[in-house]
Design a protein that fits this description.
15 strands; globular; mainly beta; about 300 residues
Length: about 300
Amino acid sequence: MMKLRLLSMVCFGLLFGTAVSQTTDLARIEYLHIPFSNSNNSIDRYRALVQAPIPLQVGSGQFLVIGLEYRNHQINIGEPVPFDPNVVKSIQNMEAYLGYTFKLNEDWRLGFKGGIRIASNLEHKIMSDDIIYLAAAYAILDKKNDKEEKPYRWIIGLNYSTTPGRSYPLPLINYYREFHPQWTYTLGVPKTNIRHYINTSKKDAFQAFVTLDNFFGNIQDNIVIQGNPVVAENISMTNVLTGIGYEHYFTEHLLLYVYGAHTIYNEFRLRDNNRETAYIIDDANSFYLRTGLKFKF
């Protein structure tokens, strides 16, 4: 159990910290469905993201980045549980952040980000436990568009958040490489993949991947589980999954994606602010479906 708990803590922290700083999306809308295999439980997630880079001076390479993201998790608990499942049937995540990035030299770019996230079941007005503060610093070496024989990109950095139970920064490392005109791979967290473009126009691609996914939300009215001294102060899910995906590019920057996967590690639970488990809702591995549209640069 200690090994699983440690894996959950590391996975959650890395995913939380890297989800924004690695993305090149300017806009995204997305739907996720997880039908738990051995129960009547399921999760549906609706997500919308907008990032707006604002140049500070023409030709300087300096940008402010304003970001907004919304996630709505609809949780259907169809199995008998020792608490009212309606308390956690909807978890809201709302995030706003401001970033600054500039070119350090011809090869390297630095970036910094600070923001605030509300993660809660929002049964009442927003309270202090619903609020998470986040910060990140990272460096990017981008050779994707240079006339390299094998284009590549490095991202390295540190991420910090006030998520309960984690009071230290976590590292970010991401490496991308094009090793053939129709093949690329990415090594890193939260996603490692290998992608194949099935035509020279690069309008269609398949990929195989291993990735992390999760959510976290404060429970405004804490739940007491009979027989367990640990009070449920929040709800979380951490998944490690592997699968395949299809992408269709309408233009160079606009694409439709469909990912199908199966979890190889799943932990869906109620817990306290020290990450101690109050109740395991579901830990069986399951299918996973995610689809959406995104516009990226």
